[in-house]
Amino acid sequence: MTETNLSTANPDSAARRGPGGTVRLEDYSGIKDAARIANVLRTALQEADAIEVDLAALTEFDVSIAQLLVAARKSAVTQGKTFELNNVPGGSIRAALIGLGLLGTDGEAHGQDEAFWLGADAEVQAA
Prior knowledge:
By secondary structure, the protein is α/β, with parallel strands linked by helices. It contains four helices and five strands, in the order E-E-E-H-E-H-E-H-H.
């Protein structure tokens, strides 16, 4: 597996690779970063059986990045691979997920699709 650090603050560090199977999204990620992020996710899907997207350093994102993550997850499932989010921050990221309709209005997961957005260890809440 490989690790890709994708820093939107420094476009030159978009494809730094090391050990592990992680793609890291950092800072603000939006439409201006979509093509670059799509390429990194595509490469990760080609090279690894288990992809983890680390969001620990993500401060904001928009619907274009959510769409890329949904598409990458669907591609992974189709290929029999795992695709998980890890270190999902709260605050503005959780607010964006609620605003996009990806989490319940209470910020909790009420189904497996919503649980995906809270990370690998998310629990599904009773309705």
